[in-house]
Amino acid sequence: MNKLGGGAGGGGQVSGAVGIAAGPTASAAAAAAQRQRTLLQRADADIGSLLDNFSHLLKAARINDSVRNAQEGFQMEIHAARVVQAADSLLKLVSELKQTAVFSDFLSLNEHIEQHVTKFSGQCDETEQLLSSVGEEAAVSLRELESHYYQSIHRS
Amino acid sequence: MAAPRVSLDSLPMKRLFSLEEAGSEHFPPEQTQEEKPLALLQRIDFSRLKEKDSKRSKSSKDNASQPATAWPWQGLVEHLQQAQQELSIILDLISHIEANEVMNVANMVRPKLLPPQELCSDLAVRVSSKLQHFHDVGNYLKKTAKALERQVEREAVFYGALMRLQLNWKVKRQKGISVVSGGSAGFTLDLSLPNLSETSSASSVGTTSLCTINVDQDSSGLLLVCPPSGRSISALKLTFGGLMQKRLSAIAARDLQTEKLVATSEAGATEIEVPLEKGVVKGVEKGAKGAHSVLRNIQAAVYDEQVFECVSREALLPSPALHVIGICNSHLQLSLNHTASVVFELSPNIENKECMRADDMNEQTSSGNFSTTEQEAPSKTTEDSHQTGAAFIACNPPILSDLNQQSNLRRTDSEKFAFEQFYPKDKALKICLQQAFYQNSFGRWIIARKSEQGNARSSYGPSMVTRTKEPSGISGVGAGKELLASSQPGLLRNFSAIIRHRKFCAEVLLVLEKQVHGIQHLHLYFHPTWNPCVSAWEICFNVPTTDSRGWTKHRCWSGEKEVDVIFSCTIVVRDESLCVEGLEGLLLFENPAKEKFLGVHSMTKYACSQSELPVFLLHQVAGKVVDWLYEEATVLGLNVKREFLGVILHLANGDDIAVVACPDVNLHVINWWIKSKVDLEGSTTNEKPSCRTIQRFIGPKPPEVLRSIIIEILNSSGCQKVINSLR
What we know:
The complex is a heterodimer.
Chain A: H1 2-18, H2 24-59, H3 66-104, H4 106-151
Chain B: E1 18-19, E2 25-26, H1 35-42, H2 47-64, H3 74-98, H4 116-168, E3 170-173, E4 183-190, H5 205-211, E5 212-217, E6 223-225, E7 235-240, H6 243-273, H7 280-315, E8 322-327, E9 331-336, E10 340-347, H8 353-367, E11 371-372, H9 379-394, H10 398-410, H11 412-422, H12 426-456, H13 491-518, E12 522-531, E13 534-544, E14 563-574, E15 577-581, E16 586-589, E17 597-601, E18 606-608, H14 612-635, E19 639-643, E20 646-650, E21 656-664, E22 669-678, E23 692-699, H15 703-716, H16 719-726
Antiparallel strand pairs in B: 1-2, 3-4, 4-5, 5-6, 7-10, 8-9, 8-11, 9-10, 12-13, 13-14, 14-15, 15-18, 16-17, 19-20, 20-21, 21-22, 22-23
Helix pairs in contact in B: 4-7, 12-13, 13-14, 14-15
């Protein structure tokens, strides 16, 4: 959300550069689109890096002379590290997407809040009815107890 | 020193090692690469150097004539030095050869090609080395894959719990802080109430710091929520200004707090002891549940602190009904219209309560932080402040506390009864205060929202607090209508009005109960009004139904037994004003104490004070019973005259017998007398000066007994007999 907000400023600049009539909504939309492109590019780059390095690993399976083999051994280590780095980058991307999902899914959040409000209002009404019925029952019971008390022989 | 000569073999032939008799020759074994330099070294001729050395030593011996005790390793060292020199020469030679300065390499033999089996083994070696490389890379990738899986699991646990929390709490993200396992997760939870943003300047720093809660993540990804360090979660407590009540509530609160502490410690222990299960769902549930419970406690503390601040702010406003007796950071003591005092307290830990209060008192007396305001009020105020001051001081020195304890223990039962009678429960009052604060803070929002929803759906009923359900028998009870609604400002004023009303009601109820206990057939029924500042009781005076009844009867709800109601009224207390309503013909007196009867008035309402209530009720009941006796005697055919609180029966023989009521306000009973003027000679004429008055006290009697006395008088037709029989 904050990143989105930060991006909104940048988007605002971009939109301001593009057109004066663009409002905050348009700049936010532009920023969101920009962010989406950035995320896609990052995902593509990471996946491409992962595939390239893995293919290099496979290519290094060819057996050459001992000197070349030693060189390829070092290269394999580097390619494996790059594969891991690309996977880690992808995971970070997923983490960012999760954060965005947590903080930017206003539609479902609002729906949930509405559901909560409805539920609590219902509970409030039920509680009020319950309290009123309890109060009335208590009043009736008290009246009955009072009359029994005044009719009992122990009273005098 | 002369340079040694180096001789190289011109014919590098293999020399014979041994020769057998049969002619077979044995050659020395092939020298290895390590042995070759040694052999070369052995071939260096050191004979000349030896000779030189021997000559030099001899000459030195002769010249110096010193003892020949040479170092045993000296020769070895010198040999090694020579060997080094020779080696350097050889290396120079080799370098020259390699540089082609002196010699040229005429021919060099190419290395021989390996045989096929050796070629295969070389390939196998390379394959195995490649395989080893792949094994290493595979292990590395497996390790990192496991680490990434753990990271995915951690994030799933954390974000799952965070998403659940977001459904109920306001989650904010901190800029520039990335999620790190085992530390801050870069998220905060905002627990501030919506109305606090409007009055943020008025809210204290402590509350603001408690409103922002950091979200942490442990090493296994479990979401953790911890209150800010150095801040304790406190709770609001209400205590009335008596020591007794304070102790009672302290004991109850201690029990409750202990339970809470046990519960929290158990929860904490389980949180610490139980490791995170591997399942993501369990981790999510565990993190969300733990965070929910902690956040609920913190939010309750925030709410209590807000209530306390609101009460403190309103207490400092000038008000005739409220006086601040003592105030400090977490304590506020108020005098409510000089009739009751109440202490609001934010206590973090009940076990340290006494010590904290003593420390606070010491600090405040030393620093002057604690301000005790002297009330410009009548003597009752000073008494009140003395009482409450004693409550404070009693907690301070232990000796005073013990003395007060001993003296108070004697009065425990009576004080307990009095407190239970006059003061409502502190927990109930706390709920009332919180509800009033809620209405004050959110009332407008709720009402606006409900009106919106009501326009849309019109399905919601009236609010519990704003509802005023009045009994049908009470008219105009709605003076305190919607007392707690947001339309009326002044949370503390309403609260103090409720307390004062409750206390006044308890006192009125005490009077009524004494009255009911003193008079037989007088029944007291509680009348629910569903209004916090309006209370009502119904009083009925019933007489069991007789066969010969000739007056208007009312039906009183009294089970299945039919009774005649000869008196009924409703005592209504609005705030602190008392009113008797529902009267059917009010007996008017100039002053109840003077007992001067003015007649019967048709008014149905009578406003009186608390002290006048027992006198008023006794006289009204006595008058109604006298009315009842008059009617009864009339039905029986007697010549009856109605007098002030009495009836005079004119008997056929000329005697006059008066049955007179005499209300005793102290004992809350109606005593009865039978009076008669009897002639000394036996004739009962009032005009004659020789007559004398006979009166007998028959005490508090129920109406049916009085009726039977009248019947007996009628049957006996002689008061003397009756009076004698009553002795």
